[in-house]
Amino acid sequence: MPLDHDLQSVHEMREAVKKAKEAQLTYLRFSQQEVDEIVKKVSDAAFNQSLRLAQMAVEETGMGVVEHKKIKNEVGSKSVYESIRHEKTVGIINEDSVNKVVEIAEPYGLIAGIIPTTNPTSTAIFKTLISLKTRNAIVVSPHPSAVNCTIEALKICLQAAVEAGAPEGIIGWISKPTMMATTELMQHKDISLVLATGGGGLVRAAYSSGKPAYGVGPGNVPAYIEKTAKIDRAVKMIVDSKTFDNGTICATEQSLIIDRNVKQMAVRELRNNGAYFLSEKEKELMEKIISPTPGKLNSKIVGKDAVTIADMAGISVPSQTRLLIAEETKVGKDVPFSIEKLSPIFPLYTVNDYQEAKELCLKLLNLGGRGHTLSIHTNNEQVAKEFGLEMPVSRILINTLSSIGAVGATTNLMPSMTLGCGSFGGNITSDNITARHLINIKRMAYGVKDVDIPVSSQNSNASKNLKQSEDVERIVEQVLHKINPENPVDTDVISEMVNEVIKKYQMNEI
Asked: Where do the Aldehyde dehydrogenase domain residues begin and end (predicted)?
């Protein structure tokens, strides 16, 4: 009798976990040099297939831009490799001869990797590299809408790893993913850590799995153009970033906030860069496409280009349109333009100064995106620092493209396809996740200080009572020694001697 889809998926997952566990026990004995050679070979193989994997991802998911996904694959392979290549992840990784502390790296064991549909190949490559670098095995659950391209990326990585000497099974996957299998994978007794990138529900499931987990929250990134910014440069960056891979990176700008003093200039530059401004009637049509159900994003617009989305709403726009913009004043779940849209659609808010901009940014972040990222374009360092100090986000990007700046492409942030949101967003870390997050660090600490341990008062009293008892016994022995067994015992003498002993005892003289 054939198994149903869920049971097949669960069975496949269990087999992958079993093989990965066996492989990891073997991989555990590999040296740093052997590990580094494997990681380099995997990175090179994935990098060389960046274009083909990008083409597969766009074809299968219907999201994004091939040329842009190729860049993401290159960041997820080569840039990630370059950022971790010199890190020690095997054995003794640090010796502090002054403080006499030695640090030793130990892998977690078996990683459960959850991959999103928006960045399916780049995230798979990235999670594989940081797992292999730290002597962990990984079993991946692809998104059902991106199974083929994700598995192809994993096959490329596995083949390169095995050819470089890694054990078979060190990278595993579920080829028929279901929610049942993914949930059981995260809860499996042999899984040591969950590395989850995806929607809010999936991330909550990862944190509820009973396992240590790195999950990342959504982004609803405000982008603020302050009056001192170089407007033409700022607008070009924002448009390029917002349209990069049709807005599928979670760190992409989602709302545009502009100082009133420079609004006219900014609007002109936005038009020059391919933005189409919606009329009030067109805005109403677009709102129904963005969020047919209040507070929920229409998944059909995710990763689509501006012209396609306009056509879905029945709006005619020029063929060269890159971005759809509507003026907005409100923020809320029932305000479609203010939610995370993951597509080239912007609300444009006008503010009088940076203080008003801060208040608006906070409202947008509280709606969705706390802890993730904020973008600001300014030449006023004090304004930038105030935003950095006051905004509840883990990344504040200054004068750069937010989408790829957050993942380390245009900044010196750690290259990563999984961006922590800290406690602001209910995450365990605010870091860009990388190899160092996938190792336990044991510490050998040598004694370097002498400490005199005082005797407690309780022990002191006990010692004193013991001494007193020993003294009484000694005196009684003396009394008995004075007694001549050949002579009759003089009871009066004995009584007097005993009374003397008791008296001295009571006066603490003995």
From this structure: 11-271
Q: What are phi and psi of 425, to 5 degrees?
A: -110, 15
Which residue do the tokens 């054995």 mark? 91
- The whole-angstrom separation of Cα 87 and Cα 367 is 38
pLDDT at 173 over 70: yes
Residue ranges per domain, the chain? 5-216+436-445, 221-412, 468-506
Contact of 24 with 137, CB cutoff 8 Å: yes
Edge-to-edge strand ranges of the sheet holding 371-377:
275-277, 323-327, 345-351, 253-259, 221-225, 371-377, 393-398
DSSP-derived 3-state class of residue 316? coil
Per DSSP, the chain holds a count of helices (H) and strands (E) of: 18, 15
Residue at 247: amino acid letter: G
> Residue 200 burial (CB < 10 Å; 0-12/13-18/19+)?
middle
Per-residue pLDDT of 47-72, as tens digits, reads 999 999 999 999 999 999 999 999 99
| Structure tokens given for 392 | 């509840």
What is the model's pLDDT at position 506?
A: 59
Take residue 296 and report the two structure tokens written for it. 């929920």
How does residue 1 score in pLDDT terms, banded at 50, 70 and 90? very low
In CATH terms, the fold of domain 5-216+436-445 is: Aldehyde Dehydrogenase; Chain A, domain 1 (3.40.605)
Token pair 């009571």 is found at 506
CA distances, 413 to each of 80, 343, 383, 408, 433 (Å): 11, 24, 21, 5, 11
Question: Which residues, in sequence order, are bridge partners of residue 347?
Answer: 326
Q: What would the two tokens of residue 32 be?
A: 């740093």
Q: Are 159 and 38 in contact (CB under 8 A)?
A: no
Residue 472's pLDDT is what? 54
Judge contact between 237 and 377, C-beta under 8 A: yes
Residues 6 or more apart in contact with residue 136 via CB below 8 angstroms: 24, 107, 108, 109, 110, 111, 192, 193, 438
Are the beta carbons of 397 and 373 closer than 8 angstroms? yes
Rounded distance between C-alpha atoms, residue 326 and residue 348, angstroms: 6
Whether 494 shows a pLDDT value over 90: the answer reads: no
The CATH architecture that domain 221-412 belongs to is: 3-Layer(aba) Sandwich (3.40)
432 DSSP assignment? B
pLDDT at 435 over 70: yes
- 315-325 tens-digit pLDDT: 999 999 999 99
Q: Which of 149, 250, 361, 421 is labelled catalytic? A: 250
- Percent of the chain exceeding pLDDT 70 equals 89
The phi, psi pair for 357, rounded to 5°, reads -65, -40
Give me the mean pLDDT over the 171-182 stretch: 95
